[in-house]
Amino acid sequence: MSALADKIKGNWNMVKGKLKQEYAELTDDDLVFAEGQEDELVGQIQKKTGQSKEEVKKFIDSL
């Protein structure tokens, strides 16, 4: 499991709240997380916010 997956899985409620604070355009539906689908989640955030995949991952890693 990747470090990103560990971060998301272990602290999902906190990560979700911080993502919504940082990217106000995200909705709960955008932030549906299923184990093993970290890349899909990052892709959805990227699509909605216009941020690069690396920027999204860096933000999550910084939490």
UniProtKB/TrEMBL annotation:
<dbReference type="InterPro" id="IPR036629">
    <property type="entry name" value="YjbJ_sf"/>
</dbReference>
<comment type="similarity">
    <text>Belongs to the UPF0337 (CsbD) family.</text>
</comment>
<dbReference type="InterPro" id="IPR008462">
    <property type="entry name" value="CsbD"/>
</dbReference>
<dbReference type="Pfam" id="PF05532">
    <property type="entry name" value="CsbD"/>
</dbReference>
<dbReference type="InterPro" id="IPR050423">
    <property type="entry name" value="UPF0337_stress_rsp"/>
</dbReference>
<protein>
    <recommendedName>
        <fullName>CsbD-like domain-containing protein</fullName>
    </recommendedName>
</protein>
<feature type="domain" description="CsbD-like">
    <location>
        <begin position="6"/>
        <end position="58"/>
    </location>
</feature>
